[in-house]
């Protein structure tokens, strides 16, 4: 398990991505961690086994991915789950009825739905607020607040939260800070280094990067939280299958080069959009006109591959015209794969968010979101120009 003892602790990101958690298979020397597709393990005699008993508890392919992701986020403990939401659900099971959670008001829609429609019924209390305003945030905390749940940047408005400031404030009050780092990935942003208690991922997105599996992960260096997560991962059972872990391990090996290309392409497309539509209508932390551009530079080493923009007058019709004209960008939900996707959040990923709430944050009916892939930039630029021709 995780026998990467040859890896120096100060190894660089790509070296860790390729080697952490993965040493040649002890039985055959296979360079790639095998898919241990088994549900149980033979015991030699009563009470005598190799440390592997049942696959919900022990699976070497999953352990490799867990150690790999922990190394990338700079945390001591990693836990993998069947999806990002399964990771969130398990994390929230560390709390008890009567506990209060403060979360961002522009969260991933599925996270909001899990909190509001499911976990509230079990006695957890939630408050949603703008986590980018430290004073408002502090006022939302109550004596029974146990957890702060943050996404930065938010989706699709690309607002940032100052992770160092928020973590310091929360820790002083004994509140743990969880950061959904799906958009930035540890290649660009490592919340644990900025003071967060735990990092959450939809492995489905950039970490796997090839749009061919679902997965989730949690990483922390907090030993008590890790003990609790290890217990719940097994007790509640939302574990990923070994095949999906193997796919994700193949994905993380190229995370650094993919993120560099996602970002280079996104920066160029954001510039094209801003020239055409004005910075007010383009939401990308890498644009010097983004209201939190300096914070983006301070707490992350890059700006990522996600862009939102509002074509024309912001109406649904204007958005639809552009959306339907893309030829290379695929019209689909999700993000973080090698292929470029375009999404209409108001009707797709954020359909459950009331229109009034959307409009209050500048999230117009026609807003479009791009997950910029790693295709050749000139082809993406040509497709975007074609889609925008009448705007
Ligand atoms: C997709 C996503 C999730 C949920 O992950 P699943 O793997 O789809 O369950 C959570 N947070 C963010 C930011 C996401 O994009």
Q: What is the CATH homology-level superfamily of the largest domain?
A: Type I PLP-dependent aspartate aminotransferase-like (Major domain)
Total number of domains: 2
Overall structural class, as computed from helix and strand content, comes to alpha/beta
Quote the CATH topology of the largest domain: Aspartate Aminotransferase, domain 2
Strand order of the largest sheet: 1-7-6-5-4-2-3
Give a verbal description of the structure.
The protein has helices at 13-19, 60-73, 84-92, 109-118, 134-140, 163-172, 185-188, 223-236, 242-253, 255-277, 293-299, 316-325, 355-360, 377-387; strands at 77-81, 100-104, 125-129, 145-151, 176-180, 198-202, 216-220, 282-283, 306-309, 330-331, 341-343, 368-371. The chain has 391 residues and is an alpha/beta fold. It folds into two domains: 13-252, 3-Layer(aba) Sandwich (Aspartate Aminotransferase, domain 2); 257-388, Aspartate Aminotransferase, domain 1 (Alpha-Beta Complex). The strands form two sheets. The protein has a seven-stranded mixed beta sheet, sandwiched between helices. Strands 8-9-12-11-10 form a five-stranded mixed beta sheet. The N and C termini lie far apart (55 Å). The model has no long low-confidence stretch (mean pLDDT 96). Bound molecules: pyridoxal-5'-phosphate (PLP). Residues 83-85, 108, 110-111, 151, 155, 180, 182-183, 202, 204-205, 214, 216 line the site of pyridoxal-5'-phosphate.
Summary, kept brief:
The chain is α/β, with parallel strands linked by helices and 391 residues long.
